[in-house]
Design brief:
The protein has 293 residues and is mainly alpha-helical. The chain has 15 helices and 2 strands.
Length: 293
């Protein structure tokens, strides 16, 4: 495969998205909520926003149109992390190497910051800068709402919480379904957003993203076992300490790594119809299974 400086591309895209978010928040003024929004948006990899940008480029959509959708998904993803870190959820003190919102401020502020980031995401998608076609904007908004609501990410989080108190341990199919909702649905939306913006068939991008999303979660489970908290940016070993069923606990460490790699290969194969134009997205799939954070 042609050598692609993926880390540089990720960094350039992430800076552009962060600048867009910063500029978009200027009119919001100041105060704990807006300060918390800015704070929470710091330090992420920008993977989902990058997926939007690259899927859009693959479909011939300009950066000027794609970046607001990329910023929207980063805001939405960050809202989910802010709420996920709360004591009533996963109860984490660190996120992206810095104190979580409820630790830096308080729990009420964290709830409101998360709420504000969620609504901010949909506001970004509603703007004409995203697309001159209102039908495209509505499609982006409605599909994102489905991906993160009671049929997607929120459902996955509820399934995860329920599993912790269930007397029936989850099997591999159960874990796969849970993670397709909790993690995979938003990754899938990010990858098909470019097709939505271009009014093109998202079939190949959907297949790519479904394999990618599952690989991403398997690697998260692997990092919880053998990752370095200083690199990962959050506590590790929590799943094992809590006795949670994960891909690693069910498959074993080595088979989980093999499964993640097979899914990355499956994701790459889904993009074969695009030829060399999809090299960056293929490289991203391999990055996901080799990452250290």
């Amino acid at each position: 495969m042609e050598d692609i400086k993926l880390s540089e591309k990720l960094n350039v895209a992430n800076i552009a998205i962060q600048n867009y978010l910063t500029n978009s928040l200027k009119s919001f003024g100041s105060g704990n909520i807006v300060d918390g929004m800015r704070y929470a948006l710091l330090g992420g990899k920008g993977l989902r926003g990058f997926l939007v940008m690259e899927s859009a480029a693959l479909m011939g959509v300009t950066k000027a149109n794609a970046i607001s959708a990329a910023a929207a998904v980063e805001a939405l993803h960050t809202y989910s992390l802010v709420h996920d870190d709360l004591p009533c959820m996963d109860d984490d003190d660190l996120r992206r190497g810095i104190p979580t919102i409820h630790k830096k401020w308080d729990e009420a502020t964290a709830v409101l910051v998360g709420d504000a980031l969620q609504t901010f995401a949909f506001e970004l998608l509603s703007q004409r800068e995203c697309s001159d076609d209102p039908n495209i904007r509505i499609n982006l908004i409605s599909s994102l709402a489905r991906a993160v609501g009671a049929q997607g990410m929120v459902l996955g989080q509820a399934q995860d919480i329920e599993a912790e108190s269930s007397s029936h341990p989850l099997g591999l199919d159960d874990i796969s379904e849970l993670q397709r909702n909790k993690t995979g649905a938003l990754i899938e939306w990010s990858a098909v957003a470019g097709a939505i913006l271009a009014c093109e068939d998202p079939k190949e991008l959907r297949e790519y993203s479904q394999a990618l999303g599952l690989a991403f979660q398997i690697v998260d489970d692997i990092l919880d076992v053998e990752g370095d908290s200083n690199i990962v940016g959050k506590a590790v070993g929590k799943d094992n300490d809590a006795g949670k069923a994960t891909f690693v606990s069910l498959l074993g460490l080595a088979p989980a790594k093999l499964r993640a790699q097979a899914l990355a290969d499956e994701a790459c194969n889904a993009l074969e119809p695009f030829g060399d134009r999809a090299l960056t997205l293929k490289k991203l799939a391999q990055f996901v299974v080799s990452r250290e954070k």
